[in-house]
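Section handout, structural biology tutorial.
Before the tutorial, make sure you can parse a SMILES string by hand: atoms, branches in parentheses, ring closures as digits. In the record below the ligand is fe (ii) ion, and the chain has 466 residues. In the tutorial you will relate the predicted structure tokens back to the input. Do not try to memorize them.
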Amino acid sequence: MEISDREFTAQAKEMINQLSIVLRNGHFHNIENDAVLEAIIKLLDIINPYIKTEGFLRIDLRGDFFYVNEMRIRYPLEYLLNFDFITNEFRKRDLGSVSFLLPLEIKDMKIFLDAFIKAVQSGMPFDEMEEWISDITHIKIDKLKKITQDEELDKRQIVKKTYFGAVSFAKGIMKSISAGEKINIKKAKRIVESMVDALLSEEQLLIGMTSIKDYDDYTYHHSVNVSILSIAIGQRLGLKRKHITAIGIAALFHDIGKTEIPKEILNKPSELNAGEWEIMREHPFRGAISILRLKGIDKAAIMNAIVSFQHHINYDLSGYPILQQPMDLTFYSRIISIADRYDAMTASRVYKTMPMSPAKTLGFMMEKSGIDLDPVLLKFFVNMVGSYPVGTLVLLDTGEMGLVYEGNHIMSDRPRVMIIADSQGDTGNGFVVDLADRDSSGGFVRSVVKTLDAQEYGLSLAEYLL
Ligand SMILES: [Fe+2]
Ligand SMILES: [Fe+2]
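Predicted structure of the complex:
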């Protein structure tokens, strides 16, 4: 019987969760214990029907994600602890994948479990484990693949191309609009789709690119950054792809009204005066009008226009434009205003020499939770950017200093970090380390001691990414 993707992902989460329960029980009890047996029976009930129809079941750990028969499984909040446990246990054994080629019996699973548990005390856990399960021909394991420095650079190249393609497109449309020319909505859709794709495979790296805040081309970078962050929130919320794309497009256009604000005000090197603010505050309304003027009025255009109109209206309906009567803020607007706020506060602007650090910005935004910003969506956002947002400067227990390069979904305090100075203060070539890596005794190789202010040291991740 064919099952839908949605049903399959739900089942796959159950499989990984139950496998984790088996491993955990095996860890804490004797393998002959009833709790272990019960967990194994439940696991077999879940996976065997699947193996029968599909012919095999393969569970891979790649980076922070599990893949079940090549389908990436988003980590479910309700199973967070079990996912965290199984990820760590796989890593400790250098285990990258397990394949079950035939329906399993209890005795097969017991042999597997026994090997899995014993392996951790061994100096070569993977090889020993492979040896111990070699009698069961229908269970195969593979070694964890480390991402090499070269693959890392390739990945970075692709993400960079996507990002800068989007920025130059944003620049192009804003210039066309200023000149009263027609713009290519289809192309906007393609650009956003490429960002959605990049986000699916390299979420954290693309979010990392949003730490690039160009001083001169601020508005274009900002539009793309807000689009990326909004797409990421949509994805975290598990929205359908077409909705995620729609949010990304609306975000890309949210500040389009700024094309009608005089350059002297937009790029004024000092704080705006009251009269200038008045004009600046017209950009949401002007944006809405110009979106509706662009290409006839259809549902998508109306949605984009509403987002432009609402993006500076707070959750409690304060902010601007000032409303004559209350209105509902759309779901898209509430998402985009969170992304907008975050990007604007972490940016360096012409009149603002010191951008706020990502961590400080999150703290500030949390203070406005339920007042300026939607509290539930904000929680998702904070969880997504992590305890150490990309771009945060950290001091490690090895004495090294680094910039947070890529978040870790499961252990948010163990991101990947780009080392920019060793314990002697010598600057290196910016190699990337994973704080989730453990040494042979199972302890972490490196941990964060404290965060430092990147601005104070005149450092930014953007410089290293480029
Ligand atoms: Fe704005
Ligand atoms: Fe904005």
